Amino acid sequence: MEVAFTFCLGKTKSAVGHELVWWWIGFLVALTLSMGLMAKAAERLPIGTVYPVWTGIGAVGAVLVGIFYFGEPATFWRIFFITTLILSITGLKVLG
Question: Are the beta carbons of 65 and 3 closer than 8 angstroms?
């Protein structure tokens, strides 16, 4: 849902009229579901693990959506830092 609302938000940049309204509705639905799922995860997992994983997935997903769907550059440093973020998220999950 994190990636879905990021994608919808990105699509609002070029949409007009009714299409724009539908992308905003998609954004709000995905955002609501994302928050609900994070709250559900926090019922069973420590918030110190849930929130960093949630934001990390959103950050990595946003960068990948930008690269694959919106033509943003896939530079060495962007890929390097995405990789370190993924390793950090994995480390939190393994140690949490």
Answer: yes
Q: Which helix (H) or strand (E) holds 21?
A: helix 17-42
Q: Give the residues of the chain that fall short of pLDDT 50.
A: none
CA distance 90 to 88: 5
Tally of domains in the chain? 1
Q: Are 69 and 4 in contact (CB under 8 A)?
A: no
Structure tokens at 48: 């110190």
Q: Where in the sequence is the domain holding 58, given as residue range(s)?
A: 2-95
Residue 16 neighbours by CB under 8 Å, 6+ apart: none
Calpha distance 49→20 (Å, rounded)? 35
